[in-house]
Amino acid sequence: MYKYFIISFVLLTFLTSCKKNENAAIHVDNGLNIKTCVAAETGLVLRSAPDASSQALANIPFKEEVIIVRYSDKDSRVDKITAPWAFIRYKNLEGWLFAGHLNGAKKGNYKNHDLEQLKREVSLKYKATVEYPESGKKTINTPDLIRISESGINGDLCVAWYCVGMECGFDEPGEEYAPSLWYYQDGKWNHFDIISRLGGSICSEVLDIRLRYINNDDLVDILVFAEINSGSIAAVYINDGNTFNEVYDTSDYSMSEASIVSETTCSTVIEYSYLDDKDKDGVGTTSQRRVRYNCRTNKFE
């Protein structure tokens, strides 16, 4: 009886191993090898196929690092997010996770950096003496007025807020704050000038800089919304580890009115209306467009 049990156990193990190896051979590594993390606080269920109803293989905890090998050919909609599935490797496991719930979860690791030095750097860049009608001259953007919000910290990026003076229509400093983007590199703080990159004279208090994971890598990206004289624009910059590359913006469209509809990973959506070229009678028409970031192509489509 014991001998029969041993033979049966060995045979079962052999058959199970063959099945696992066969499945692993089907999924060929296409060279993506993207490092990312589980973004869902309750963890993610690793599945046997790119489908929420497929067999559950394991539960991967929140913030655990996984490697994306490739994406599914089709998108799925899970928790109101439209995104592909990602075939991943995790320790000795392989399977499918919903890509819309993956990103690099690095939030708030500035404890090792000198934030007081950052405040001084921001102050030096934006410090000014302004003549106010009622109160006379005042120095704005001293270090004690610079604000750093936890929600504006991620990876080696930080959004610092400074006072907006009369040049933007406010009578007193401190009534409104404007964001500026800074990054820590080579042992020092560096300024990333969003306004100059947008190519316009944009009054700084209408600029909104958001740190988000647009694609599935572990590098935080930038979403920008700004109001300008002729309307509003949205722009997206993807972090490649060395610099931020603009992958989309609506500033080329005349009288554009843009909005960021969704900010989720692999499913960031920008919607905007714009004025078409005028026809022969000099009348222009307004058109609307909606684009979504595609993780497979790394483009807005």
What does this 3D model show about the protein?
By secondary structure, this protein is mostly beta strands. It has three domains: 2-103, SH3 type barrels (Roll), CATH 2.30.30.40; 106-176 and 185-190, no CATH class; 193-301, no CATH class. Helices cover 14% and strands 47% of the residues. It has a five-stranded antiparallel sheet, with no helix packed on it. Strands 10-11-12-13 form a four-stranded antiparallel sheet, with helices on one face. The protein has a four-stranded antiparallel sheet with strand order 14-15-16-17. A hairpin with an 8-residue loop joins strand 2 (44-47) and strand 3 (56-60). The chain is globular and about 70 Å long.
| Share in β-strands | over 45%
Largest sheet: 5 strands, antiparallel
Helix content range:
10-25%
Termini separation comes to: 64 Å
Q: What Rg do the Cα atoms give?
A: 25 Å
Number of helices: 3
| H/E topology pattern | HEEEEEEEHEEEEEEHEEEEEEEE
Question: Which descriptor suits the 3D outline?
Answer: globular
List the helices and strands and how they pair.
Elements: H1 2-26, E1 34-38, E2 44-47, E3 56-60, E4 65-78, E5 81-90, E6 93-98, E7 102-103, H2 115-126, E8 128-132, E9 136-140, E10 147-154, E11 157-163, E12 177-185, E13 188-192, H3 194-198, E14 207-212, E15 221-228, E16 231-239, E17 244-249, E18 257-264, E19 267-275, E20 286-294, E21 299-300
Antiparallel strand pairs: 1-4, 1-7, 2-3, 4-5, 5-6, 8-9, 10-11, 11-12, 12-13, 14-15, 15-16, 16-17, 18-19, 19-20, 20-21
